[in-house]
């Protein structure tokens, strides 16, 4: 990724896009009191540098897919190749390499109550061991607070997404899934471009996007490297929590700025967290003084994230088709 820095205007624009990934640049410009061209130029600069990507994905609860968290122990020399192979699959939501180059963690989404493709993974010559846990529930109803604190309440009121308080039911079609695949790559893709790729008319695409958003089916995420906000230590945590205290622990961690994601899983550990800290020292303090002091936390396994081969928002990933 090209070296970039975020100023206040960039952070405000990113916050606005996180609220509504398809909000017109003209609306962002009006809220921030700058020109449309300024917003478009800032967006283009960050995207060209590989520092920004907007993805639009179906709501995980409504899409009714099964999500599997898969941990792979790999040969060090094979790690990058395995990660790239997994990232190219349509049924992976995110793929990350962990420290040491011997482990990869990814999230699969399969239709209905389908199983993770463990047999296929085990047959890969670069993969030594495969384990899978089902992701039972997402335990955060908001995104990482570190990238959503730039706009004032008055500015937020000017960048609100479509009202989804009383959604009408929508049945997903095969054509919808083709549309999702395009939007997961570029959530701001023009309707004309989407129409050409999914072989619909532009008016049909525009109308369908309105229906999907109105039904609460389509959500947006802005992928930005946390280091640009000053958070350089990314970590996966597997926590073993006393079942009776699981909701209490999750609610407590969800309120922390360091927490980017929380999910309940099956397996030896029942809580998965993605945390962001400014450096190794603050990560140590967070683990020892914050998480270590929470009643009900029995065990914590940590693994620093060194690279993402694929990154969508865990709470709302793209569906395979």
TrEMBL record:
Q: Start and end of every HTH asnC-type domain? A: 172-232
Q: Does the keyword DNA-binding apply?
A: yes
| One Pfam family this sequence matches | AsnC_trans_reg_3
Q: Which UniProt keywords apply?
A: DNA-binding, Transcription, Transcription regulation
Write down the PANTHER family for this protein, in alphabetical order. LEUCINE-RESPONSIVE REGULATORY PROTEIN, TRANSCRIPTIONAL REGULATOR AZLB
What name does the UniProt record give this protein? Lrp/AsnC family transcriptional regulator
Q: Which organism is it from?
A: Nocardia fusca
